[in-house]
What does this fold into?
Amino acid sequence: MIQRILHSRGFVAAVLAMGAGAFLYYTHPFPEDQLFLLVISIRAPHAFLSFKYLYNTVLFTTPYIAFSTLLSGVYIFALKIRRRISPGRLPRYADPGKRDALFLVVGEVHNPRKPVPAEAPRWLTIPERGLFTGIAIFGAIGTGKTSCCMYPFAEQVLAYKAAEKDKRIGGLILEVKGDFCHKVKDILDRHGRSEDYIEVSLDSEYRYNPLQSDLDAYELAYSIAALLNNLFGRGKEPFWQQAYTNLVNFLILLHKVAYDYVTLFDVYLCAISPPTLEARIAEAEEILMGRHYVAIKPDVYGARTADLVGLGFIHDPKEDRYLAPATAQLRETLQIKGIASESKTVLNPAQADSDKLEKLEAIKRWYNDDWSRIEPKLRTSIVEGISVFLSLFDSNPRVKKIFCPKKECYDPAKNINNMYGKPLPSFSWLIENGKVCALNFPIGMNPGIAKALGIMMKLDFERAVLNRVPKIEAHPEQYFRQVLFLCDEYQHFATVGESDPTGDEKFFSLSRQPKCIPIIATQSMSSLKSALPGDTWRTLLQTFRTKIFLALSDDFSARTAAELCGREDQLKVSYNLSESGHDARVSLLTGKAVSQKANITASKSYNTQSDYRFDMKTFTELRNAQSVIVAYDGFNPMPPMFCYLKPYYNDPNKSYFRQVADGEL
It folds into this structure.
């Protein structure tokens, strides 16, 4: 109130002057009955009237000057006192479970350019179309990335349409600490979605085979080779990646042809053991082209003819045996009757699957004309390049059990009551059914395995999401639920493809159409830069249109954040003091120049300069739950602004500044 009065001091002084003038006009009227003035009125009437009008005018102007001077003095004095603004009441925070539309409340906005409260704060919200363009969160250790961003954001997205099973949002959760998954489970429990939580860990009932998918062998091999590049770095010589891809491709193809199933352990075993590889090729040939029989010698058949009649045995002159198609029931019958028998396989290419047979021939050509002709030393180097990764699934029995399950695990007839573990459904099924899959494998247990599993699961998820695009385009009338990708400490799982067709930067650039909501958090841009080759971190960073900067502790990240927020023309004030003297002379006492007459001149000038909207100092001095945000609503970018985040453990309807005053932050 006082500030408003002081800012309108001219008008207030005029009103007060009118009141004081009216009071003086009636209490101290012009003394026209004085003798001297009577004489003037008779001899010079015009002069008398001028005196009278001047007197009445001064009755009003003098108070105006007095009041104006007084209010100006108060205004100048008040400038030295910092105004204390009480933060206004925020609009009511919308319950995530009751929202009709999907949007994300990031935090509260007061003064967008200064970290001070405002009398009319507002919420910073990102609508659904803006969420599909990605959100990246940057903040040093202990700045509140998880508590102020990841937890509240996850709850708002996962609580949307929680009561409608056909519209619930599913997705993938990746983290490295081991506690975030439990928070996500609590969120789902609170909103009645307990059955939607699926956790993959060393203690869970689920089994996840990264190679159990509908992708062909080359795509799977290429993914593994790309994973090796991201784990151990890309060499300057492309031969090694090509060799890795070729070897893994044919090993996967061999097992798919022979057994319709392959695990990373199978690939590892055949890669390091040439006898095993040769035996698998021979076994594949036998499985494809051979027919299995139960054989009985003629003398045994003659002695037990009565017991063998009706079992389908026919004499084969070439083999000099009585043969019958091998079945489990026949073997059991012979065992019960105590009749000696043997197994016999007869090759018959005409009975083989032509497609698989052609693939087997390709495998044999590769093995005989390519792999076997490579020098043993070079072949050992190629094997060692992939075994350093694949051996992770052999050295740890628990990891092997969960991520290299037996084939029976995927056979409903043999895996009754999930005796071999419960197979993890495909990500396509998980997405379309609103399931939330979380990888709970803390990186402290084994950094190599944790990173490898997280990346493989992420790549499977990304493929499943992109495969939604043709379906969405083919059925525009159908409702397709949104998909969430949430990754804490993203620098551990980030992958880029550069010239390759895979990579997060390619997925995030296409994730808008399949309705994916990517939300990632990392400690700094330096973390991404150190984890990715070359300048690929820039390509990855530009795919996230909304960027949230909490306190940053390194100069590179702070400088990059300042550059991303942009520059603008700002009015700069400069002061200049100068002193000049006349008749100057040198003092005999001090030896300095002195003068009898001196002038001091002070000047103040204004000029515009292009400067950062938020400088590096701003990003390094942000308090907890305080951030600078560059947001995007799906159509237009919002200008960078201060935004105050809402920790999950505090009341979101209580202003940030009140929480600070009450010691809650």
